[in-house]
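Anyone? Bumping this.
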Amino acid sequence: TTTDADALRTPIVAVLGHVDHGKTTLLDRIRGSAVQEGEAGAITQHIGATAVPLETVSEMAGALVDPDDFDLPGLLFIDTPGHHSFSTLRARGGALADIAVLVVDVNDGFQPQTEEAIDILRRTGTPFVVAANKVDTTPGWNPQEGEPIQRSLEAQSDRAESRLNENLYELIGDLSDEGFSADFYWRVQDFQGNIGIVPLSAMTGEGVPDLLTVLMGLSQRFLKSEMSIDVAGPGRGTVLEVKEERGFGATLDAVLYDGVIRTGDTIVVGGQYDPIVTEVRALLQPRPNAEMRTEKRFEKVPEVAAAAGVKIAAPDLDEAMAGAPVRVVRDQTEEEVVAEVREELAEIEVETAEDGVVVKADTLGSLEAMANALEEAEIPILRAEVGDIAPRDVAVAETANEETHRVILGFNVDVLANAEEELETSDVRLFADDVIYQLVEEYEEYVDDLQR
Ligand code: GTP
Ligand code: NA
Ligand code: MG
């Protein structure tokens, strides 16, 4: 960790995309190669996040990256397992991620969660590149382990290359339908106005050097001024998940995007009902090279500096919310920080109407995304909250005047057993899905049927 006030912060790179398009494999590739090369100490793996230092990036990218050209410390990758998690990637005033990689399976093309990822990237104004993954599955492909994509393309038959190109042009077309001008990354001059497409294979590693190069270039060119923030200041982060850990009770998996957090710090965390004020008991990180999701043993560290993933153990975290802010109290009074957290939570507060539907979602970010989608569809909201569907929600939905509003829309949430009973005996309809636009569509179809 560094607490040098002039140090540049590691850019946060979110890896997004449809289920099984290869996000985790891509990160494993980046992480794994570094491990293979015996660089266990050079790669820091955090909760939900993998910090890849500049030396590792430059070794993986080979001739494509000269470390002397960069003064960023590396890249912090955030894996997003499934759709729901990336909508927690919010930070004050926008996106937690500085840039994003949208992973698309070249054969599968755009899929529902690709579109949802694009919607969120557009709304938050997050610059992104497209990783056109699984090029090795192109019929007749001649794999070139770990090579830059140009080298790999030179080794392909005309037939294989043109088959790949067909798929890539389809991606360019899909992006254009979404309002983005896109091209093969090596033809992109202006990465601010154009989306670069990097053909690659997470499996064979070809094209991965190119992706790292583009990400470093993007970060350096467009984000450097934002990166040089007060890395020694009070820690500011976002909760990714609230998890029970044996011996610690409820803990937070968080990404710190600014400043430093230390054991013993007083922190303020966005809670279900009110900001939670508590004291950091322990800061935990998985052992080097351990897969964070399966890791059982964590190493206690005295402090963590942004940008980083960290597990925070502290009392009273049961009601903390995924997607909510975490703030260290330092330089400001506790009251001031609580007020700031309240204000930040209010930013996300959904506009409600006298009559409307009840919305439940798994995280603050997904609640926000749901509210946006419903607003666009001109569907009023009576109440919107984070959490599983409880009997109380059924009772609230029952109070709606219009039949079309006696509805609960549940995004990525469970129905509590006693709420199930309530649903059966009431005239409240439940719609549940884990793709936002499908949920909205299902509801709209229901309304159409009622009104027919
Ligand atoms: P979720 O986390 O479930 O959303 O999926 P993901 O996007 O992380 O995909 P994951 O990395 O789990 O990969 C899904 C499957 O695709 C696995 O079987 C991978 O081995 C395979 N896969 C990923 N990348 C490649 C690739 O470049 N080539 C080939 N042939 N298979 C790949
Ligand atoms: Na998967
Ligand atoms: Mg995955």
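Late reply, but here is one note on the structure posted above: The CA atoms of residues 200 and 207 lie 4 Å apart.
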